Amino acid sequence: MRLILASSSPRRHALLGLLGLPFEVARPDVDEEAVWARWWRGPGSGRRAARRLAMAKARAVEASLQAPALVLAADTVVLLGGNVLNKPSNAEHARQMLRSLSGLTHEVVTGVALIGEGISSSASACTRVRFGRLRDAEIESYIQSGEPFDKAGGYGIQGLGGLLVERIDGPYDNVVGLPMRLVYRLLRRHGVTIW
């Protein structure tokens, strides 16, 4: 059966490509803010909200298909003290996010959903990330790199943003955007052979 990744993220494309499985890519058309508004209930609800958004993305792509397929979707969110840090809208927003993360530990949660004929599964992974204390000059240089603007929390651990991180507890690839062990388990559970 065809495998479709419901994501426009080049990082997710690259990670899923590591499995060596053929897959197609489709961009989901989902109002992410509406889904978050419905499922976000403050501290402790990040996993549920991320899973629900991943499922909404998978369903949106599945509804547009002409033939049966397995659809894999994911949503990653950065949580700090009960607040969601989405993608920054401009340089000042990125500056505020990075200052708020400086010297503290935050959580990165990725919800993953897999749907297809008779299949509807979702799960989530969580990684705790601690930033070092950031100087204003570091924050400004990082913003000037342009890297913060398409990433939840305003940083990318796989790029220059990795220099901001002091330590992590949990899967690294979860912070990049696709927890591969979790994806592997979902695919295997539903009969997709990896090895």
Brief overview, please?
The chain is α/β, with parallel strands linked by helices and 195 residues long. The chain has seven helices and seven strands; from the N terminus they run βαβααββαββαβαα.
Task: Indicate the topology.
Layout lengths: L2 E4 L3 H8 L6 E3 L5 H8 L6 H18 L6 E11 L2 E3 L5 H11 L3 E12 L2 E13 L4 H9 L20 E5 L2 H5 L3 H10 L6
Parallel strand pairs: 1-2, 1-3
Antiparallel strand pairs: 3-4, 3-5, 5-6, 6-7
Helix pairs in contact: 2-3, 4-5
Order of helices and strands: EHEHHEEHEEHEHH
Based on secondary structure, the structural category is alpha/beta
Helix coverage percent of residues?
25-40%
Query: Gap between N and C termini, in Å?
Result: 16 Å
Q: Any low-confidence stretches, pLDDT <50, length ≥5?
A: none
Shape: globular
Task: Tell me, rounded to a whole number, the average pLDDT.
Answer: 91
Total strands: 7
How many strands, what sense, and barrel or not for the largest sheet? 7 strands, mixed
How many helices in DSSP terms?
7
**Estimated share of beta-strand residues:** 25-35%
Quaternary status: single chain
Rg measurement, Å = 17 Å
Features:
single chain, alpha/beta, seven-stranded mixed beta sheet, globular
